[in-house]
């Protein structure tokens, strides 16, 4: 079965600290993609970062990096130097070759940055 | 980057009426659009996959007669909630797949800003 698991329903982090949001996945498909999205209170889904299963290096996008541990089937999002504007829901998602381009979503983690 | 719009952003309707939500890809062609529903503090739940020129594929448990989906062109898909009831109140989000993006890559789906439906 294909599944995304986010075990942290909520996190509080002090401003300027780094934060790691956990994501583990399960699939038997050798080709897949992993995504992280941010959803602020306004509701829009903001794409943050993508990691392909065959990518040799961990993806990075500005303050966002993805700690891809293929053997452990984990794809944790790391946000460096957190800012108040990072407070939002964060979703991990996966697409596999046989998913008809559908995304499989995790339950999400609510991140609150404290000043 | 590719932009997907949704209209309306918010709608309040009375129980028993129908509501139409539009999802448009503004600068690309989308053969496939996805409709999601999201309850407060929960993840996105895929309702249906909409393919241009053909019938939508609904997920298990989603009533196709209640949630009518039409994908009449490569840039427009509509979701009509028929005979809406308070339990249909939710946040509805569409996403669109860029026809030109090919099989791989990250930029396969672009999300609309969502529509908040309240049924009174």
Question: Key features?
Answer:
heterodimer, A: 115 residues, mainly beta, six-stranded mixed beta sheet, four-stranded antiparallel beta sheet, 0% helix, B: 120 residues, seven-stranded mixed beta sheet, 11 strands, 53% strand, globular
Fold and architecture overview:
The complex is a heterodimer of chains A (about 120) and B (about 120). By secondary structure, chain A is mostly beta strands. Chain A contains no helices and twelve strands. The radius of gyration of chain A is 14 Å and the shape is globular. The N and C termini of chain A lie far apart (about 40 Å). In chain B, the strands form two sheets. In chain B, strands 2, 4, 5, 6, 9, 10 and 11 form a seven-stranded mixed sheet that branches. In chain B, strands 1-3-8-7 form a four-stranded antiparallel sheet, with no helix packed on it. Chain B is mainly β. Chain B has strands at about 5, 10-15, 20-25, 30-40, 45-50, 55-60, 65-75, 75-80, 90-100, 110, 115-120. Chain B contains no helices and eleven strands. In chain B, strand 7 (about 65-75) and strand 8 (about 75-80) form a beta hairpin. The interface of A and B includes residues 44 and 110 of A.
Task: Write a compact overview of the structure shown.
Chain A has 115 residues and is mainly beta. Chain A has strands at 3-5, 10-14, 19-21, 24-26, 32-39, 46-52, 60-61, 64-69, 74-79, 88-96, 104-105, 109-114. The model of chain A has no long low-confidence stretch (mean pLDDT 94).
Largest sheet, strands/sense/barrel of chain A: 6 strands, mixed
Count of strand segments of chain A: 12
Note poorly predicted spans of chain A. Answer: none
What is the C-alpha radius of gyration of chain A, as a whole number of Å?
14 Å
Mean pLDDT of chain A: 94
Shape of chain B from CA axes? globular
For the report, how would you describe the main beta sheet of chain B?
Answer: 7 strands, mixed
- Terminus-to-terminus distance of chain B: 37 Å
Q: Which pair of chains has the greatest number of interface residues, and how are they split between the two chains? A: A-B, 21 and 22 residues
Percent strand of chain A: over 45%
Mean pLDDT of chain B: 90
Q: Can you count the helices of chain A?
A: 0
Low-confidence stretches of chain B: none
């Amino acid at each position: 079965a294909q599944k995304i698991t986010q075990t942290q329903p909520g996190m509080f982090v002090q401003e300027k600290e780094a934060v790691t949001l956990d994501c583990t996945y399960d699939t038997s498909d050798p080709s897949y993609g992993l995504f992280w999205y941010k959803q602020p209170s306004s509701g829009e889904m903001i794409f943050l970062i993508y990691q392909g299963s065959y990518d040799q290096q961990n993806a990075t996008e500005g303050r966002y990096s993805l700690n891809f541990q293929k053997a452990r089937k984990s794809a944790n999002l790391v946000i460096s130097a957190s800012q108040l504007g990072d407070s939002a829901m964060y979703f991990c998602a996966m697409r596999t070759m046989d998913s008809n381009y559908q995304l499989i979503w995790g339950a999400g983690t609510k991140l609150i940055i404290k000043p | 980057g590719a932009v997907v719009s949704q209209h309306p952003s918010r709608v309040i309707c009375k129980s028993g009426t129908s509501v139409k939500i539009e999802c448009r890809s503004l600068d690309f062609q989308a053969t496939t659009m996805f409709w999601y529903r999201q309850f407060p503090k929960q993840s996105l739940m895929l309702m249906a996959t909409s393919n241009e020129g053909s019938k939508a594929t609904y997920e298990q448990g989603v009533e196709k007669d209640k949630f009518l989906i039409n994908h009449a062109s490569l840039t427009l898909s509509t979701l009509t909630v028929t005979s809406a009831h308070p339990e249909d109140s939710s946040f509805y989000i569409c996403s669109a797949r860029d026809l030109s993006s090919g099989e791989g890559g990250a930029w396969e789906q672009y999300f609309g800003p969502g529509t908040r439906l309240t049924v009174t």
